[in-house]
Amino acid sequence: MSSASNSHVPLVILGAGVIGLTTAHLAACDSDVTFDITIIARDMPGDWGSQAWASPFAGANWSPMPLGATDERVRRWEQTTFDRLWEMIPSGLAKGFQRLPSRMFAETDDILSTLWWKYLVRDFSLLSDSQIPAPYKVGIAFDTVSINPLEYLPWLRSELEVRGVTFRRQHIRSLDEVKPFVGKTGLLVNATSLGSRSLIGVEDTALFPIRGQSIIVERNGLQEFLSARSGAELSEHVTSVIPRPGLNEMNTALLNGTYQIGNWDTSLDMSVAKGIFERCSALEPCLKEGTKILRHTVGLRPDRKGGPRVEVERISLPLRRHDDLAPYVIENTEEEQQEIVVVHAYGMGAAGYQRSWGVAIDVLSLLKENVRKDRLLID
Questions:
Q1: Residue 355, SS3?
Q2: Cis geometry, peptide bond prior to residue 20 (ω within 30 degrees of 0)
Q3: How far apart are CA 9 and CA 26, in angstroms?
């Protein structure tokens, strides 16, 4: 990689969610290639009220997801990410991290056939019958990682700014708009999650939302992650209590929630909130004792038919469409076509945080592989 390290490589990352920021962090710290990184996004850390992105509304603790049982790539991402986050807890380097004792209950024992993650988490054990409340048949205990997005995302941004990463607030509607930033030798990472459905030049209709409604409460008396499931798969009415760490926003917990596939509605439904609080209170009775409600949240998890997309695509810009409906962006109509390397990284569903470091490693590997190819062509 020595030839690649002799000059700077422009790198544009679309999206400032957890995938985009984590990818930028690894690229900024890479010792083989010197990337000049620009993050372009409509929503940035601090835009906590915007429902146009998912990262602020995530539960953001590591919790077992069914896809890891069947997708080896996803399993590798989750193992890598869990280990990385676990190592960061005692280091004190990152804000908003916490080791979290956990108990998970299920109404059927089919969850026992999907314990691919038992060696990934720490201190895994099956609970005895006397430790399992009705109506559940199975109980599992383990230690996991909890993250507070409202502290972790700003920490990632501050780390990137120290390393010279540029943040540019802009709503990109077409890949043609990023051509000036990528230049003739740059690379592009597309981490726009659900935005990739409408990003002209990508238009991935395999993406779909999973609506999540939650309640943020004061944490008084809540010391462990509690989760209840009907079985191995996630149902529409998921139930979990997630205590959160925090220095700026202390003593909070997230009550989850909903898992409504294909639902684009971002409005608050107070009847749903009532059901969430009742289910969580049944799981953790101390919530009934004058719990202070801080706020309600609704977010859209960015999932994708066929699984997450992490791959390279070479796209020729300016875009040429057979229907001639591409927006007019570039003034110089004589500009030559240029092929740019795009690494797509989106479609993580409800698991963006718990796959972030593993996905970012794969994205960086794809970026460096294409740097090598370009250098060989030049040399």
A1: helix
A2: no
A3: 14
CA distance 117 to 139: 15
Q: Between 260 and 248, whose confidence is greater?
A: 260
Closest to 266 in 3D by CA, of 51, 17, 47, 59: 51
Cα 261 from chain centre: 17
Do residues 121 and 68 touch, judged by C-beta distance below 8 A? no
Please spell the DSSP secondary structure of 198-229, one letter per residue.
TSBTT--TTEEEEEEEEEEEE-TT--SEEEEE
Sequence-ordered list of residues with C-beta below 8 angstroms from that of 335, at least 6 positions apart, any chain: 318
**Core vs surface per residue 9-22: b (16+ CB within 10 A) or e:** bbbbbbbbbbbbbb
Would strands 338-346 and 309-317 be described as parallel, antiparallel, or unpaired? antiparallel
pLDDT at 257 > cutoff 70: yes
Q: Which of 227, 34, 22, 230 is nearest to 142 (CA)?
A: 227
∠ Cα 279 282 288 (to 5°): 100
User: How far apart are the C-alpha atoms of 161 and 155, rounded to whole Å?
Assistant: 10
> Are the CB atoms for 208 and 54 separated by under 8 Å?
no
Residue 105 CB neighbours (<10 A): 22
Instruction: Report which of residues 232 and 160 the model is more confident about.
Output: 160
Q: Residue 334 — very low, low, confident or very high, per pLDDT cuts 50/70/90? A: low
Backbone dihedral region of 298: left (phi > 0), alpha (psi from -120 to 50 degrees) or beta? beta
Structure tokens, 209: 């939302």
Report the C-alpha gap between 110 and 107 in whole angstroms: 9
Give the integer Cα–Cα distance in Å for 129 and 294: 35
* Distance between CA atoms of residues 313 and 309, nearest Å: 11
Euclidean distance between CA atoms 177 and 59, whole angstroms: 33
**CA geometry: angle at 193 spanning 349 and 371, to 5°?**
115
What sign results for the dihedral spanned by CA atoms 186, 190, 192, 197? positive
Q: Mapping DSSP to helix (H, G, I), strand (E, B) and coil, where does residue 281 land? A: helix
